Amino acid sequence: MSAWKVIFAVLLIFIAGAITGSIAAKNKLPESRPPGGMIGGNDRRLEYLRRMKEKLDLTPVQHERVETLLKESQERLNKIWEPVSPQIKNEFEAVRKAMLAELSAEQQAKFQKMAEMGRSRQRPDQRQDKPRTPHDHGTNPPPHSRKPLPPQ
Question: What are phi and psi of 2, to 5 degrees?
Fold first, then answer.
């Protein structure tokens, strides 16, 4: 087997695992990471701050300082993400085209339907054709659609 075929097979397995993990995370796992990381934008940052205030009984001064820290972190992460976002988008598109080339016409049609189903599950703000930031796409549902964790 040529080196290209091995690389393609490994890449295909990786992508299949990523898709499976994404679906599993979207359907099964509660959000456990704070906003400002790679999972949410302003709404999630504010929701996280609200939960901190509620659960930790933050003072007004603590609330203000933590809010500033989260906002500054989000801005830094956006700057880090901005230059690589187009490269990542291009890579996903290239591998999608390469995978389509390996499929029969019937498989291509099914693959396109799978992709459409994935896009239909995204929030409307994620479906726009715009450069993404780390806060545009997470695998976790919005806070209002999550089921509460069972008591410990």
Answer: -70, 160
CA distance 31 to 140: 6
pTM: 0.39
Task: Measure the CA angle with vertex 64, ends 60 and 65; round to 5°.
Answer: 120
Angle at 50 between CA 70 and CA 150, to 5 degrees: 115
Dihedral sign for Cα atoms in the order 42, 56, 140, 36: positive
Residues 138, 62: Cα–Cα separation, whole Å: 27
33 vs 48: CA distance, rounded Å:
9
Question: 3-state DSSP call for residue 58?
Answer: coil
Report the C-alpha gap between 115 and 104 in whole angstroms: 16
What's the pLDDT band for 32 if we cut at 50, 70, 90? very low
Do 76 and 68 contact (CB within 8 A), yes or no?
no
Record the tokens describing residue 38, joined without a space: 């790679």
The count of other CB atoms within 10 Å of the CB of residue 40 is 25
